[in-house]
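Sample entry copied in:
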Amino acid sequence: MRIVFMGYQTWGHRVLEALLKSEHELPLVITHPTSNHLYETIWNDSVATLAEQHGIPVLERKYANDEEVAALLRELKPDLLVSSDWRTWVAPHIYGLATHGAINIHDALLPRYGGFAPLNWALVNGEREVGVTVHFMNEDFDLGDIVVQKRVPVSDKDTVTDLFHKTVELFVPATLEAIDLIGSGRTDWTRQDPAQATFFHKRSVEDSRIDWTWPARDIANLVRAQVDPYPNAFAYFNGQRVRILSASVSQLRLGGTVGRVFRPEGEGVAVVCGPEARRGTEHGLVVARLRTDDGEEHRGVDFFRAMGGYLTSHP
């Protein structure tokens, strides 16, 4: 097939690398300009550099809906647009210029977790399964017909970084399988149910702030969803910010005021948390490891040398 590729960061880099090794023709690559958004500097292998190394023309755009893009596509007459980590909406008058339209590869089990940071949000919400979906683009964001979907179980110990490595490995086989299915003439795709769709915004600093009224399991999931190299879940102790690197649910139900540093447990300390903490019905959160703003890492039992005091959401 004659494919125009639209991609960004490591997800785009992986797919482009595979397409370059395939029998498909690539006359053009479209990518986003370099970004300083924190979540766009983590897995940031350069699509532009890879394309240039192979002599493929590169067009940089935040949005790819302008007349220059349309004119190029009319000239190139692609069979298919392939998108991997393209982060803005593509208009029908653009993808309609390809014979088979456009497909996008998204690291979620659509129709749930459309939008941004799907792995982080899925882990925050305690999902037991994540995955990768290849779907056609349509007028709605992340709601086109599904071509291929692959699933990955989430274990109790998986972090968002673990899930990134597991799902990014599926991008290439899912993409190549989808292209082959489209090329075979198949048209019986799986429709998404918009009533089942959920969409999530980009994560920012506020989304990593620990709310001690959450149940311990939810806070532990937030910590897992924000491990290195992502911005860590954080709280404050005596006005000092601490980043929580590792946490688990305490074996004990702890009563009192949320955020209270209660007692040692293993290598960590158990902290009172949960919406019903004052009734003594909630399990505490064991803070096992943390990092201070000077970059030093500590075991919970070493940092909290005396029990008492409060971890808070704000200074």
